Amino acid sequence: MAKDKNGTATEIVQAFIEEQRKFAAGQRLEMLNRDLNGTIKLLTDILLPVFGSLEGFHLEYEIVGTNGVKLYADIYYEPLGLIFECDGFVAHVELMTRDRFSFERLRMRSFVMMGYKYIPFSRDEMDKKPEMCRRMLYEFLGKYGRLRDDPEVLKPAERELLRIGANGDIFTQRDVRQRLMVNSDTARKMIRKMLSDSWIETVGGSDKRQYAYRLGQRGRKWLMG
Length: 225
What we know:
This protein is α+β, with helices and mostly antiparallel strands and 225 residues long. Helices cover 51% and strands 16% of the residues. It folds into two domains: 9-142; 148-223, Orthogonal Bundle (Arc Repressor Mutant, subunit A), CATH 1.10.10. It has helices spanning 9-22, 26-32, 37-51, 89-94, 98-113, 123-128, 130-143, 156-164, 173-180, 184-196, 217-223; strands at residues 57-64, 70-77, 82-87, 117-122, 200-203, 212-215. The strands form two sheets. It has a four-stranded mixed sheet with strand order 1-2-3-4, sandwiched between helices. The protein has a two-stranded antiparallel ribbon with strand order 5-6.
């Protein structure tokens, strides 16, 4: 796994979990000390790559339901009111009692009724199709208005270029020409400017020849609002 200035994804997630435990107490702390394999998988393979950091996230976040019962969300993203959870088939379906199954559905309904957006992933799809999971999350963020217009920063054509990569897809100069209906010279100049400002970044290629692009660090931050 590649290492950045903050360490590997595994190191970042482990440090985040320890920090969450440090400020937890009671039932929340008990839940944070249980088996977190599914949560770790979700953080490492899906959420960290899409959001770029774990700032704003909380584990085993306590929410008081409409009936006064304390409910715990596996992973809560406070800035957008998003709840993420990972369900393994055996633990959550095969071995679940009828009462527990009913309570889980009540818990999910309570989250929705209280205005949270509930986004579940299965362990199998994260193991077998992590790229699909990340793409769906990018699409969700784009659909709910995270790619906002900001005329003070970007021109309309530049905002449209960012939307090409808003679902996590890799795109080429040809995609830019076709989507924006511009010629090669205009597309090349726009891409060069967006690269220099860190809105997008290259994928593959070399210093002299660039083959494809995706959202860069600045573009991802803008996507998250």
